[in-house]
Amino acid sequence: MEDLRKINSMQLYLLWRNLAISLLCIGLVMCGSHMVPYYMAPVVSLLLSAMLYTMLWNNNVTGEIGCMVVVETMLYTLVCYTFLSILLVVIQILDLYRFPNEMIFFNDPYLPSLLLLPTGLVVTLFAIFFRNSMPSYRRFRMVYGHTRERGYFGFISNKEMDVQLKNLAVIFAILTAIVWTYYLNVYVSINRNGRDWYIFVWIVVILVILDEIYFMIRYYNLYLDLQEHNEIITPEELRDVTARTYLRFYVICGEYVFLDRNAFDRLNQVKGVYDTPFITKRTVNGVPTTEVKNIVETMTGKKEGELRFFFGRHLAGVDKHSLLRYFYFLDGDIEDHADMGAEGEWVHFDDVKRIYNETPLKMASNALNDLSRLSTIMLTEKLYDEDGYRKNKIRSYKGNITLSDVRKSHIDFQDDKWIKVANFNSDTKFFRLKKFLREAIGRKSGNPVGK
């Protein structure tokens, strides 16, 4: 399973590219607003918003491996800034309040930094706290799986996403403080000079460029470090890489699952965690079910079991490598299956759930992710119908799952339908309103997004 630690070099490039384009938009708004007539300033931000929206749309269509949270954050920033600047003009036209002339784009000079920077700070802070709810992040997680499921790059991308958003917030905060301190204490509207333009425009552009250079160096050094530890796979190597299919089997008997307490987690490079000992790989693209059955029978020495497909995914960034999970149900009692042909022991599922809830770091990353998917889908199907409405009206009812439930279930665990319901259901605030809007948008676009 060493390939779970392999990172596609293109993934690191996309991390930097998405941030670089987002930062570039700040400088383009500053410069563009002074290159066109001042009353055309909102057009500049709207054009940039359209460009960012096109990037998000293309990412959804092409399935490009890169999370677009930073791009989406900048899109919201530009849209909010545009409508806020228009709102100030409307308020002033209606004579409801008089704003400083420099904040109204019908006046010359118009200083977009006074509005854009604090707007960006507020939007970025919201993105930091509500990142998991952002559409681009939900889609990325839906396509490529949970952080642990995306392999080693999942950890890096998750960390760097936080770093990029916090960096963006710091940039906006510093620039907001500089610009507004200067505007309130130094700036004189009747005596504008070159220093004013330096503070309101060029210091913003310079800081953005320096930040882009910093992240360029950061990701280049990260690339060198990963390459030194043989954890990078280049696009050239990807074209020549051999197809591989990794198989994980969860062997179950009654309410017990066979686990190794001292397994080695190759993803985190730690030993002494709970994981299934039945893991293997085949140098082929996909394995027929009959061969999978033969493999698990050989590994366990048990030929009377029932094989059930759990779910599988391609490894993020390495399409020729896939990881498939299976259940292997045995009849009888665990005493009848003392010899399983591998190191490990029968662990009651209640103990597994307790470890999962209380000490998750004692479980291997893949086992933890697989149990999370299993419990999420099973509990969601028990609590809600396919439209997201509660089956049981008692809100305190949480439900429970057992391994016998899993064996009896006919749920398609490969399908993300119940994951979507878990993320958006009748317990969500303003559920009915949001559902109505999603269905209305879906009908209009021909895409049933409300489901």
Give the topology, please:
Elements: E1 7-8, H1 9-35, H2 41-62, H3 69-93, H4 113-129, H5 135-144, H6 152-185, H7 194-228, E2 232-233, H8 235-240, E3 244-253, E4 256-265, E5 270-275, E6 279-282, H9 289-300, E7 306-315, E8 318-330, E9 345-348, H10 349-358, H11 365-383, H12 403-408, H13 417-423, H14 431-445
Parallel strand pairs: 1-2, 3-8
Antiparallel strand pairs: 3-4, 3-6, 4-5, 4-9, 7-8
Helix pairs in contact: 1-2, 1-3, 1-6, 1-7, 2-3, 3-4, 4-6, 6-7, 11-13
Q: How would you explain this protein's 3D organization?
A:
The chain has helices at residues 9-35, 41-62, 69-93, 113-129, 135-144, 152-185, 194-228, 235-240, 289-300, 349-358, 365-383, 403-408, 417-423, 431-445; strands at 7-8, 232-233, 244-253, 256-265, 270-275, 279-282, 306-315, 318-330, 345-348. It is an alpha+beta fold and 451 residues long. Helix 1 (9-35) runs parallel beside helix 3 and helix 11 (365-383) packs across helix 13 (417-423). Mean pLDDT is 84; it is low at 443-451. The two termini are 35 Å apart. The protein contains 14 helices and nine strands. The strands form two sheets. Strands 3, 4, 5, 6, 7, 8 and 9 form a seven-stranded mixed β-sheet that branches. The chain has a two-stranded parallel sheet with strand order 1-2. It is elongated, with a radius of gyration of 27 Å.
